[in-house]
Design a protein that fits this description.
The protein is mainly beta. Helices cover 2% and strands 42% of the residues. InterPro entries: WD40/YVTN_repeat-like_dom_sf (IPR015943), WD40_repeat_CS (IPR019775), WD40_repeat_dom_sf (IPR036322), WD40_rpt (IPR001680), WDR89 (IPR039328).
Length: 412
């Protein structure tokens, strides 16, 4: 069996074996709506305080992605060292490490239907691996081949048995229970498939997005045939970085591109509803801080039916900017939350403390977690920033050597 663990790795003072603190579910909350319809950030903008910060390792590693499972009180991070590390989300204590990938880890998720204890990861080494977070051992492996870089994966299907992955111009589908490959969809995309996602309310529908600028919708019921099961194609016209579902019955799709544009779509009928080519400039004009250099992600609150795009600066500051369904006066509104003072470089990932934003931070006052190119894993408070006595930053940070360039996925 490939893969392994190191639950007593020497490193920073934060990295010690520890029992995970109890961390109950229900960390949901909301950003206070900003009544200002235009202009820079107003007094209603929430400036969030840093709860703590951990250096995930010595050396030149980035934090690529954060995933969490509240049911087992575990926070997972993927690093540029091709390893996964695990921490207690409440205390930041180090729990263990999984190693085995030989290429960049592109995506991690606790969404495995079989067990909340299992986390999956896909990598440039052509594999999708499952890990048991109790033993930190690899328990299964799907190998698409060394020539098939795995960029994304998603569990779904009408029976919950499908695992889809995005690879080099292909969408692969397996029955994850038997590890049998069921289909290889290779005619719909002409370049790397960067995202695959099953629709939350229509689990037989699969959305794929690629560097070729196309977003495809497939029906995965029954025997999957690309000629008959490709339902629609949406042309974003530039390389797609991330997509996600939102809106009533999750009938809408947001899309971020590698050139930092934003668009929204009705994926059921294939129509584009919003196309924001100057999204960074619009966001920059909606706060008093530095120029917005990139977008990290989008976040949707189902109870509020609101969508935010999360923009960042090269110095590590983040802002939550509402996306307006009626773009009169600009499609992006004033920043409603600012995360400042935690990072010193580009932020790669943000993981909110709850799937909704209605009662944010009512448990332990936690807003969420961020990770980036400075190697820091930061936990953010949702209470008033004036309570600085509750904030601290790890004293274990070390002088960093000049880092190698590990760019975002660039199509050109």
């Amino acid at each position: 069996m490939e893969g392994g663990c190191d639950t007593a790795a020497a490193g920073t003072a934060m990295e010690v074996e520890a029992e995970s603190s109890l961390f109950s579910a229900g960390l949901s909350g909301s950003l206070t709506p900003n009544p200002a319809a235009s202009g820079v950030a107003s007094s209603t903008t929430r400036r969030l305080g840093l709860r703590n910060s951990i250096q995930t390792n010595f050396g030149d590693d980035y934090v690529f992605q954060i995933a969490s499972c509240q049911e087992i009180s575990t926070l997972a991070v993927s690093l540029s060292t091709n390893a996964l590390k695990f921490y207690s989300p409440a205390t930041g204590q180090y729990m263990g490490e999984c190693t085995g990938h030989t290429g960049t880890i592109h995506e991690i998720s606790f969404s495995t239907p079989s067990s909340p204890q299992v986390i999956c990861s896909c990598s440039a080494d052509g594999t999708i691996r499952a890990w048991d977070t109790r033993s930190f051992k690899q328990i299964s492996l799907l190998n698409g081949g060394a020539s098939r870089e795995m960029f994304s994966f998603s569990f779904g299907g009408s029976s919950g048995n499908l695992l889809a992955s995005g690879s080099n111009s292909q969408v692969l589908l397996w029955d994850w229970r038997s590890s049998k490959q069921l289909a290889c969809l290779e005619d719909s995309h002409m370049d790397d498939v960067t995202q695959v996602r099953f629709a939350p309310n229509q689990q037989s529908k699969l959305v794929s997005a690629a560097i070729d600028g196309l977003v495809c919708v497939f029906d995965t019921d029954g025997d999957i045939d690309e000629d008959n099961d490709l339902l629609s194609v949406m042309n974003v016209e530039t390389s797609v970085a991330k997509v996600g579902f939102y809106g009533n019955m999750y009938r809408k799709l947001w899309c971020l591109t590698h050139i930092e544009t934003l668009s929204t779509w009705d994926w059921n009928d294939g129509t584009r509803e919003l196309n924001v080519e100057d999204a960074r400039s619009l966001a920059t004009n909606k706060w008093n801080l530095d120029h917005v250099d990139y977008f990290v992600d989008c976040h949707y609150s189902l109870p509020d039916d609101r969508l935010w795009v999360i923009g960042g600066t090269n110095a590590g500051t983040l802002g939550y900017f509402p996306v307006k369904t009626d773009p009169v006066g600009g499609a992006i509104d004033s920043a409603e939350a600012v995360l400042e003072g935690g990072h010193t470089g580009v932020v790669r990932t943000i993981y909110p403390a709850g799937s909704s934003l209605e009662r944010l931070g009512q448990h332990r006052g936690i807003f969420g977690w961020t990770g980036g190119e400075d190697g820091r894993l930061c936990c953010w408070r949702s209470d008033d920033i004036v309570e600085t006595k509750k904030s601290w930053i790890s004293s274990t940070l070390v002088s960093r050597v000049e880092k190698r360039t590990k760019g975002r996925h660039q199509p050109y």
